[in-house]
Amino acid sequence: MNRVRVVVAVLLLTLSLCAGRPSQATASPDASVVERIAPGVEYRAFSLATAHGPIRIHLLTADLRRPGVRAGLLYPGAVADRAPVSVMAERQGAVAAVNGDFFNITEDQHPGVPATGAASGASVLDGRALKAAVPEGQRFGGALPAGDSAEDVLGVGTDGRARTARLTLHGHLRTARTILPVRGLNQYALPEGAIGLFTSQWGSASRARAVCGTDHNRAAPCTHEVFEVTIRHGRVLHTSTTPGSGPIPPGTLVALGREGGARALRALTPGTTVETGYRLASTARVPFAFALGAYRVLKDRRTLPGLDAVTAEPRTAVGIADRGQLLRVVATDGRESTATGLTLAELARLLRSLGCDEGVYVDGGASTTLATRDPATGRTTVRNTLDHGQQRRVPNGIALYSLRKRDGSGGS
To answer: pTM of the predicted model, to two decimals?
Structure first.
Protein backbone atom coordinates (compact mmCIF):
# COMPACT_ATOMS: atom_id res chain seq x y z
CA MET A 1 0.00 0.00 0.00
CA ASN A 2 3.11 2.21 0.05
CA ARG A 3 2.32 3.63 3.50
CA VAL A 4 5.49 5.70 3.62
CA ARG A 5 4.49 7.61 0.50
CA VAL A 6 1.07 8.46 1.96
CA VAL A 7 2.50 9.60 5.29
CA VAL A 8 5.05 11.82 3.56
CA ALA A 9 2.31 13.19 1.32
CA VAL A 10 0.21 14.24 4.30
CA LEU A 11 3.12 16.20 5.69
CA LEU A 12 3.81 17.86 2.33
CA LEU A 13 0.20 18.85 1.80
CA THR A 14 0.58 21.71 4.25
CA LEU A 15 2.83 23.34 1.67
CA SER A 16 1.19 22.30 -1.58
CA LEU A 17 -2.40 23.21 -0.74
CA CYS A 18 -1.55 26.73 0.36
CA ALA A 19 0.39 27.42 -2.84
CA GLY A 20 3.30 29.25 -1.33
CA ARG A 21 1.73 30.17 2.02
CA PRO A 22 3.05 27.35 4.26
CA SER A 23 2.73 29.32 7.47
CA GLN A 24 -1.06 29.15 7.17
CA ALA A 25 -1.33 25.37 6.85
CA THR A 26 -0.88 22.80 9.57
CA ALA A 27 -1.68 19.12 9.78
CA SER A 28 -3.66 17.60 12.64
CA PRO A 29 -2.02 14.25 13.45
CA ASP A 30 -4.24 13.68 16.46
CA ALA A 31 -7.29 13.67 14.20
CA SER A 32 -5.88 11.13 11.71
CA VAL A 33 -7.45 7.71 11.16
CA VAL A 34 -5.86 4.66 9.51
CA GLU A 35 -7.88 1.47 8.91
CA ARG A 36 -7.33 -1.69 6.92
CA ILE A 37 -10.74 -2.22 5.33
CA ALA A 38 -9.80 -5.47 3.60
CA PRO A 39 -6.69 -7.04 2.10
CA GLY A 40 -5.31 -4.51 -0.35
CA VAL A 41 -7.78 -1.74 0.57
CA GLU A 42 -6.93 0.92 3.15
CA TYR A 43 -8.85 3.94 4.50
CA ARG A 44 -7.24 7.07 5.91
CA ALA A 45 -8.73 10.33 7.17
CA PHE A 46 -6.78 13.41 8.15
CA SER A 47 -7.30 17.12 8.67
CA LEU A 48 -5.35 20.03 7.24
CA ALA A 49 -5.58 23.79 7.42
CA THR A 50 -5.55 25.89 4.25
CA ALA A 51 -5.59 29.63 3.53
CA HIS A 52 -9.39 29.53 3.28
CA GLY A 53 -10.04 27.28 6.30
CA PRO A 54 -9.70 23.71 7.53
CA ILE A 55 -10.32 20.66 5.38
CA ARG A 56 -11.01 17.03 6.19
CA ILE A 57 -9.80 14.47 3.67
CA HIS A 58 -11.00 10.89 3.35
CA LEU A 59 -8.68 8.64 1.34
CA LEU A 60 -9.12 5.11 0.02
CA THR A 61 -6.15 3.32 -1.50
CA ALA A 62 -6.69 0.12 -3.50
CA ASP A 63 -3.71 -1.99 -4.54
CA LEU A 64 -4.86 -3.48 -7.84
CA ARG A 65 -1.73 -5.67 -7.97
CA ARG A 66 -2.98 -7.72 -5.05
CA PRO A 67 -4.89 -10.91 -5.97
CA GLY A 68 -8.61 -10.46 -5.37
CA VAL A 69 -8.51 -6.64 -5.36
CA ARG A 70 -10.40 -4.99 -8.18
CA ALA A 71 -12.56 -1.99 -9.00
CA GLY A 72 -15.90 -1.95 -10.79
CA LEU A 73 -18.85 0.24 -11.67
CA LEU A 74 -21.22 1.03 -8.82
CA TYR A 75 -24.58 0.71 -10.57
CA PRO A 76 -28.22 0.89 -9.41
CA GLY A 77 -29.47 -1.57 -12.05
CA ALA A 78 -30.58 0.89 -14.75
CA VAL A 79 -29.00 3.91 -16.41
CA ALA A 80 -32.01 6.09 -15.59
CA ASP A 81 -32.09 5.18 -11.90
CA ARG A 82 -30.35 6.31 -8.72
CA ALA A 83 -29.55 4.92 -5.29
CA PRO A 84 -27.42 5.86 -2.26
CA VAL A 85 -23.76 4.85 -2.47
CA SER A 86 -23.92 2.70 0.68
CA VAL A 87 -26.99 0.83 -0.58
CA MET A 88 -25.38 0.00 -3.93
CA ALA A 89 -22.14 -1.00 -2.20
CA GLU A 90 -23.94 -3.49 0.03
CA ARG A 91 -25.94 -4.89 -2.89
CA GLN A 92 -22.79 -5.45 -4.91
CA GLY A 93 -20.65 -6.82 -2.07
CA ALA A 94 -18.12 -3.97 -2.29
CA VAL A 95 -15.76 -3.31 0.62
CA ALA A 96 -15.69 0.40 -0.23
CA ALA A 97 -17.34 2.76 -2.70
CA VAL A 98 -17.59 6.37 -3.78
CA ASN A 99 -20.00 8.40 -5.88
CA GLY A 100 -19.37 8.93 -9.59
CA ASP A 101 -20.38 11.07 -12.53
CA PHE A 102 -22.46 14.26 -12.73
CA PHE A 103 -26.05 13.55 -13.74
CA ASN A 104 -29.41 14.87 -14.96
CA ILE A 105 -30.58 15.98 -11.54
CA THR A 106 -33.28 18.54 -12.41
CA GLU A 107 -35.39 19.84 -15.30
CA ASP A 108 -36.62 23.19 -14.00
CA GLN A 109 -35.98 24.68 -17.44
CA HIS A 110 -38.30 22.22 -19.17
CA PRO A 111 -41.64 22.22 -17.29
CA GLY A 112 -43.45 18.92 -17.55
CA VAL A 113 -40.34 16.99 -18.60
CA PRO A 114 -39.12 14.66 -15.83
CA ALA A 115 -35.44 14.46 -14.96
CA THR A 116 -34.02 11.04 -15.77
CA GLY A 117 -31.30 10.80 -13.13
CA ALA A 118 -28.96 9.40 -15.81
CA ALA A 119 -25.24 10.20 -15.76
CA SER A 120 -23.73 12.71 -18.18
CA GLY A 121 -20.68 10.76 -19.33
CA ALA A 122 -20.05 7.45 -21.01
CA SER A 123 -19.87 4.26 -18.96
CA VAL A 124 -18.82 0.65 -19.38
CA LEU A 125 -20.22 -2.20 -17.29
CA ASP A 126 -18.56 -5.63 -17.25
CA GLY A 127 -16.70 -4.83 -20.46
CA ARG A 128 -19.79 -3.74 -22.41
CA ALA A 129 -20.96 -0.30 -23.50
CA LEU A 130 -23.65 0.88 -21.10
CA LYS A 131 -24.16 4.45 -22.27
CA ALA A 132 -22.51 7.22 -24.28
CA ALA A 133 -21.74 10.82 -23.30
CA VAL A 134 -24.23 13.64 -23.82
CA PRO A 135 -23.09 16.69 -25.85
CA GLU A 136 -20.80 18.94 -23.83
CA GLY A 137 -23.39 21.72 -23.64
CA GLN A 138 -25.92 19.29 -22.14
CA ARG A 139 -23.82 17.96 -19.27
CA PHE A 140 -24.38 18.94 -15.64
CA GLY A 141 -21.56 20.33 -13.52
CA GLY A 142 -19.38 23.39 -14.05
CA ALA A 143 -17.34 24.30 -17.11
CA LEU A 144 -14.76 21.68 -18.05
CA PRO A 145 -11.06 22.40 -17.54
CA ALA A 146 -9.26 23.41 -20.73
CA GLY A 147 -8.52 20.37 -22.88
CA ASP A 148 -11.06 18.10 -21.18
CA SER A 149 -13.99 16.56 -23.05
CA ALA A 150 -17.46 15.33 -22.14
CA GLU A 151 -16.25 11.97 -23.49
CA ASP A 152 -13.45 11.63 -20.92
CA VAL A 153 -13.64 8.62 -18.60
CA LEU A 154 -11.72 6.88 -15.86
CA GLY A 155 -11.78 3.13 -15.47
CA VAL A 156 -9.88 -0.12 -15.19
CA GLY A 157 -8.89 -2.11 -18.24
CA THR A 158 -9.12 -5.82 -18.85
CA ASP A 159 -5.44 -5.91 -17.83
CA GLY A 160 -6.41 -4.81 -14.30
CA ARG A 161 -4.75 -1.37 -14.57
CA ALA A 162 -6.50 1.94 -14.04
CA ARG A 163 -6.35 4.57 -16.78
CA THR A 164 -8.11 7.53 -18.36
CA ALA A 165 -9.28 7.74 -21.97
CA ARG A 166 -12.03 9.08 -24.22
CA LEU A 167 -14.96 6.95 -25.33
CA THR A 168 -16.71 7.94 -28.56
CA LEU A 169 -19.86 6.22 -29.77
CA HIS A 170 -19.93 4.58 -33.19
CA GLY A 171 -23.26 3.07 -34.19
CA HIS A 172 -25.63 2.46 -37.08
CA LEU A 173 -29.04 1.29 -38.21
CA ARG A 174 -28.83 -0.68 -41.46
CA THR A 175 -31.78 -1.53 -43.73
CA ALA A 176 -31.91 -2.91 -47.28
CA ARG A 177 -31.97 0.67 -48.58
CA THR A 178 -29.86 2.79 -46.25
CA ILE A 179 -27.45 3.07 -43.35
CA LEU A 180 -28.36 5.59 -40.66
CA PRO A 181 -25.70 6.80 -38.19
CA VAL A 182 -26.44 6.40 -34.47
CA ARG A 183 -25.06 9.14 -32.20
CA GLY A 184 -26.67 8.32 -28.88
CA LEU A 185 -26.84 5.35 -26.51
CA ASN A 186 -28.94 5.36 -23.33
CA GLN A 187 -28.35 9.09 -22.79
CA TYR A 188 -30.64 11.78 -21.46
CA ALA A 189 -29.73 14.25 -24.23
CA LEU A 190 -29.21 13.53 -27.92
CA PRO A 191 -27.13 15.70 -30.26
CA GLU A 192 -29.14 17.96 -32.52
CA GLY A 193 -30.41 16.17 -35.63
CA ALA A 194 -29.32 12.78 -34.30
CA ILE A 195 -30.67 9.27 -33.73
CA GLY A 196 -30.12 7.58 -30.38
CA LEU A 197 -30.64 4.02 -29.20
CA PHE A 198 -32.20 2.97 -25.89
CA THR A 199 -31.79 -0.58 -24.61
CA SER A 200 -33.33 -2.53 -21.76
CA GLN A 201 -30.58 -1.13 -19.53
CA TRP A 202 -32.04 2.37 -19.82
CA GLY A 203 -34.81 1.49 -17.37
CA SER A 204 -38.40 2.73 -17.30
CA ALA A 205 -37.86 6.51 -17.25
CA SER A 206 -39.42 8.69 -19.94
CA ARG A 207 -37.25 9.38 -22.98
CA ALA A 208 -38.76 12.87 -23.43
CA ARG A 209 -35.69 14.65 -22.01
CA ALA A 210 -33.53 13.29 -24.83
CA VAL A 211 -35.01 15.76 -27.35
CA CYS A 212 -34.68 18.89 -25.17
CA GLY A 213 -31.93 21.49 -25.24
CA THR A 214 -29.24 21.87 -27.89
CA ASP A 215 -25.60 20.91 -28.23
CA HIS A 216 -24.58 24.24 -26.69
CA ASN A 217 -27.54 25.19 -24.48
CA ARG A 218 -29.02 22.73 -22.00
CA ALA A 219 -31.91 25.11 -21.28
CA ALA A 220 -33.07 25.47 -24.89
CA PRO A 221 -36.66 24.33 -25.60
CA CYS A 222 -37.53 20.76 -26.52
CA THR A 223 -37.88 20.10 -30.23
CA HIS A 224 -41.27 19.13 -31.66
CA GLU A 225 -39.73 17.25 -34.58
CA VAL A 226 -39.50 13.79 -33.03
CA PHE A 227 -39.93 10.21 -34.24
CA GLU A 228 -39.46 6.95 -32.34
CA VAL A 229 -39.11 3.42 -33.70
CA THR A 230 -39.32 0.24 -31.63
CA ILE A 231 -37.24 -2.64 -33.01
CA ARG A 232 -37.66 -6.17 -31.72
CA HIS A 233 -35.48 -9.06 -32.85
CA GLY A 234 -34.35 -7.13 -35.91
CA ARG A 235 -37.72 -5.89 -37.17
CA VAL A 236 -39.62 -2.65 -36.68
CA LEU A 237 -42.47 -3.39 -34.30
CA HIS A 238 -44.18 0.01 -34.19
CA THR A 239 -43.52 3.75 -34.49
CA SER A 240 -44.54 6.89 -32.61
CA THR A 241 -44.34 10.66 -32.99
CA THR A 242 -43.63 11.14 -29.28
CA PRO A 243 -40.92 9.76 -26.99
CA GLY A 244 -42.13 6.85 -24.91
CA SER A 245 -41.54 5.57 -21.40
CA GLY A 246 -41.70 2.33 -19.47
CA PRO A 247 -39.40 -0.71 -19.42
CA ILE A 248 -37.78 -1.85 -22.66
CA PRO A 249 -37.88 -5.67 -22.85
CA PRO A 250 -34.68 -7.64 -23.53
CA GLY A 251 -34.23 -8.16 -27.25
CA THR A 252 -35.88 -4.80 -27.98
CA LEU A 253 -34.29 -1.51 -28.99
CA VAL A 254 -35.87 1.92 -29.24
CA ALA A 255 -34.46 4.33 -31.84
CA LEU A 256 -35.35 7.95 -31.07
CA GLY A 257 -34.65 10.73 -33.55
CA ARG A 258 -34.81 14.51 -33.34
CA GLU A 259 -34.95 16.97 -36.28
CA GLY A 260 -33.00 15.36 -39.16
CA GLY A 261 -32.78 12.08 -37.27
CA ALA A 262 -36.56 12.05 -36.88
CA ARG A 263 -37.04 12.62 -40.61
CA ALA A 264 -34.69 9.73 -41.43
CA LEU A 265 -36.48 7.35 -39.06
CA ARG A 266 -39.86 7.99 -40.71
CA ALA A 267 -38.75 5.71 -43.55
CA LEU A 268 -38.72 2.74 -41.15
CA THR A 269 -42.23 1.33 -41.27
CA PRO A 270 -43.53 -1.63 -39.23
CA GLY A 271 -42.12 -4.89 -40.53
CA THR A 272 -38.92 -3.34 -41.90
CA THR A 273 -35.82 -5.46 -41.24
CA VAL A 274 -33.19 -3.46 -39.36
CA GLU A 275 -29.68 -4.48 -38.32
CA THR A 276 -28.24 -2.46 -35.43
CA GLY A 277 -24.74 -2.10 -34.11
CA TYR A 278 -22.86 0.14 -31.70
CA ARG A 279 -19.61 0.36 -29.73
CA LEU A 280 -17.66 2.83 -27.64
CA ALA A 281 -14.36 3.48 -29.41
CA SER A 282 -11.59 4.13 -26.90
CA THR A 283 -8.38 6.13 -27.15
CA ALA A 284 -6.84 3.51 -24.84
CA ARG A 285 -5.26 0.43 -26.37
CA VAL A 286 -6.62 -1.89 -23.68
CA PRO A 287 -10.42 -2.33 -23.50
CA PHE A 288 -12.15 -1.17 -20.34
CA ALA A 289 -13.62 -3.66 -17.91
CA PHE A 290 -15.45 -0.71 -16.37
CA ALA A 291 -15.44 3.04 -16.91
CA LEU A 292 -17.42 6.14 -15.99
CA GLY A 293 -17.36 9.83 -16.86
CA ALA A 294 -14.57 11.82 -15.17
CA TYR A 295 -12.63 15.01 -15.86
CA ARG A 296 -8.88 15.42 -15.64
CA VAL A 297 -7.13 17.81 -13.28
CA LEU A 298 -3.72 16.09 -13.26
CA LYS A 299 -1.72 14.64 -16.15
CA ASP A 300 1.85 13.32 -16.07
CA ARG A 301 2.11 14.63 -12.49
CA ARG A 302 1.32 18.16 -13.68
CA THR A 303 -1.79 20.09 -12.72
CA LEU A 304 -3.79 21.23 -15.73
CA PRO A 305 -3.71 24.97 -16.41
CA GLY A 306 -6.71 27.17 -15.70
CA LEU A 307 -8.22 25.09 -12.88
CA ASP A 308 -10.57 27.01 -10.60
CA ALA A 309 -8.64 28.27 -7.58
CA VAL A 310 -11.48 30.18 -5.91
CA THR A 311 -14.52 27.97 -5.26
CA ALA A 312 -14.02 25.49 -2.42
CA GLU A 313 -16.57 22.68 -2.30
CA PRO A 314 -16.84 19.09 -1.11
CA ARG A 315 -15.02 17.11 -3.82
CA THR A 316 -14.76 13.55 -5.03
CA ALA A 317 -11.68 12.60 -7.04
CA VAL A 318 -9.62 9.62 -8.13
CA GLY A 319 -5.86 9.45 -8.60
CA ILE A 320 -3.87 6.84 -10.51
CA ALA A 321 -0.39 5.90 -9.29
CA ASP A 322 2.31 3.32 -10.02
CA ARG A 323 1.41 2.87 -13.71
CA GLY A 324 -2.24 2.22 -12.99
CA GLN A 325 -1.66 -0.33 -10.26
CA LEU A 326 -2.80 1.91 -7.38
CA LEU A 327 -6.09 3.77 -7.11
CA ARG A 328 -6.39 6.63 -4.65
CA VAL A 329 -9.99 7.68 -4.07
CA VAL A 330 -10.54 11.01 -2.31
CA ALA A 331 -13.61 12.62 -0.74
CA THR A 332 -13.50 15.89 1.18
CA ASP A 333 -15.86 17.37 3.72
CA GLY A 334 -17.51 20.77 3.38
CA ARG A 335 -20.79 22.66 3.72
CA GLU A 336 -22.14 20.73 6.71
CA SER A 337 -18.98 20.65 8.81
CA THR A 338 -16.19 22.95 9.87
CA ALA A 339 -14.34 21.94 6.71
CA THR A 340 -14.33 24.28 3.72
CA GLY A 341 -13.75 21.78 0.93
CA LEU A 342 -11.20 22.24 -1.85
CA THR A 343 -10.89 24.17 -5.08
CA LEU A 344 -10.11 22.20 -8.25
CA ALA A 345 -6.57 23.58 -8.22
CA GLU A 346 -6.09 22.36 -4.64
CA LEU A 347 -7.60 19.02 -5.57
CA ALA A 348 -5.04 18.55 -8.32
CA ARG A 349 -2.19 19.42 -5.94
CA LEU A 350 -3.58 17.01 -3.37
CA LEU A 351 -3.57 14.13 -5.86
CA ARG A 352 -0.06 14.99 -6.99
CA SER A 353 1.12 15.07 -3.36
CA LEU A 354 -0.30 11.59 -2.91
CA GLY A 355 2.03 10.30 -5.61
CA CYS A 356 -0.54 10.21 -8.42
CA ASP A 357 0.51 10.51 -12.04
CA GLU A 358 -3.03 11.20 -13.24
CA GLY A 359 -6.05 12.60 -11.44
CA VAL A 360 -9.69 13.23 -12.22
CA TYR A 361 -12.67 14.71 -10.47
CA VAL A 362 -16.26 13.50 -10.58
CA ASP A 363 -19.43 14.89 -9.02
CA GLY A 364 -19.06 16.72 -5.71
CA GLY A 365 -21.10 18.96 -3.44
CA ALA A 366 -24.06 17.10 -1.95
CA SER A 367 -23.20 14.04 -4.09
CA THR A 368 -19.83 13.45 -2.40
CA THR A 369 -20.14 10.16 -0.52
CA LEU A 370 -17.41 7.73 0.52
CA ALA A 371 -18.45 4.52 2.27
CA THR A 372 -16.57 1.52 3.65
CA ARG A 373 -17.51 -1.86 5.03
CA ASP A 374 -16.79 -2.45 8.70
CA PRO A 375 -14.58 -5.60 8.79
CA ALA A 376 -16.05 -6.59 12.16
CA THR A 377 -19.76 -6.15 11.51
CA GLY A 378 -19.97 -6.28 7.72
CA ARG A 379 -22.08 -3.11 7.72
CA THR A 380 -21.38 -0.32 5.26
CA THR A 381 -20.80 3.11 6.79
CA VAL A 382 -20.47 6.54 5.21
CA ARG A 383 -17.19 8.13 6.31
CA ASN A 384 -17.47 11.73 5.11
CA THR A 385 -19.78 14.45 6.44
CA LEU A 386 -22.87 14.55 4.21
CA ASP A 387 -24.77 17.59 3.01
CA HIS A 388 -27.77 17.97 5.37
CA GLY A 389 -26.78 14.60 6.85
CA GLN A 390 -28.39 12.70 3.96
CA GLN A 391 -26.97 10.55 1.19
CA ARG A 392 -27.93 11.83 -2.23
CA ARG A 393 -29.16 9.15 -4.61
CA VAL A 394 -26.66 8.94 -7.48
CA PRO A 395 -26.59 7.04 -10.81
CA ASN A 396 -23.16 5.42 -10.53
CA GLY A 397 -19.85 5.32 -8.74
CA ILE A 398 -16.73 3.26 -8.17
CA ALA A 399 -16.90 0.03 -6.18
CA LEU A 400 -13.82 -1.56 -4.62
CA TYR A 401 -13.67 -5.30 -3.99
CA SER A 402 -11.31 -7.55 -2.05
CA LEU A 403 -11.74 -11.32 -2.13
CA ARG A 404 -9.99 -13.96 -0.06
CA LYS A 405 -7.98 -16.24 -2.29
CA ARG A 406 -8.79 -19.39 -0.35
CA ASP A 407 -12.59 -19.28 -0.64
CA GLY A 408 -13.49 -16.35 -2.91
CA SER A 409 -15.51 -14.60 -0.23
CA GLY A 410 -15.22 -10.95 0.74
CA GLY A 411 -13.61 -9.94 3.96
CA SER A 412 -10.49 -8.95 5.75
So the answer is: 0.91
